[in-house]
Amino acid sequence: MLLELVELSKSFKSGSQRVQAVDGISLTVDAGEFLAIKGPSGCGKSTLLLMVGGLLSPDTGKVLIEGTDPYALSNDQRARFRSTHLGFVFQQFHLVPYLSVLDNVLTPALATNLAEAKERANALISQFGLEHRLHHTPVELSTGEKQRVALARALFHQPKVLLADEPTGNLDAENSEIVLNTLKQFTQNGGCVLMVSHDDQAVQSAQKVLGIKDGRLQPHSETETLINS
Ligand SMILES: Nc1ncnc2c1ncn2[C@@H]1O[C@H](COP(=O)(O)OP(=O)(O)O)[C@@H](O)[C@H]1O
Ligand SMILES: [Mg+2]
């Protein structure tokens, strides 16, 4: 089991009210699995993914990534664990605006051997057809190119778990296909993907699609569809 979520919950204070953004979500994702969670805006998708990614601590419940609870680690250990064990892809790319394509892909490199890291980053950048953009900054890239840089960065440490939050939300059809094919190929190579999206088209790339509403997974019998297997 690469990913295990046990009764995860998170609420936010909004004025005098509390919003229950995620309400008792449990699930597992195995090696080779591509799971998509589909639901409308505001139903808790991003909150769920941030918790899974070690970026937002849950009120209650547990996250296990390859058996490790990121919230049981110190802040430094958790940052390092995130960088080496998880890949993230977001709708808004979250590239560092003042760094070149090469340096953005190198941001997870930490203290590893720089020559080796550069070689790996260059190979990934070429794999995504961006070798001619190596020294450009994000503002000089198209949205599709930005997301390909984000994918290269996410894959830098060859993680086993990829998390994707509306990864095709800003992309044209061609780049959406590149992103979704990359996610599919990633699972075929033994990784797992957890993607959240409101987009019917995007979730069709997953092997399994669950619904989410008001922070809760929908009963399997109503929403689970097995598309590819
Ligand atoms: N940092 C926050 N502070 C207050 N409310 C939040 C915060 N993040 C999310 N929410 C609320 O939690 C609910 C779920 O949000 P979110 O997880 O972003 O949904 P989605 O990604 O499905 O659009 C929404 O009602 C949103 O307004
Ligand atoms: Mg969201």
UniProtKB/TrEMBL annotation:
Keyword 4Fe-4S recorded: no
Keywords: ATP-binding, Hydrolase, Lipoprotein, Nucleotide-binding, Transport
One GO MF term: transmembrane transporter activity
Enzyme class: hydrolase
SMART domains: AAA
EC numbers, comma separated: 3.6.3.-
Residues annotated as domain ABC transporter: 3-229
Coiled-coil zones: none
Entries under PANTHER family matching the protein: IMPORT ATP-BINDING PROTEIN
Membership in a protein family: Belongs to the ABC transporter superfamily. Macrolide exporter (TC 3.A.1.122) family.
Name used for this protein in its record: Lipoprotein-releasing system ATP-binding protein LolD
Source species: Gimesia fumaroli
Higher taxonomy: Bacteria, Pseudomonadati, Planctomycetota, Planctomycetia, Planctomycetales
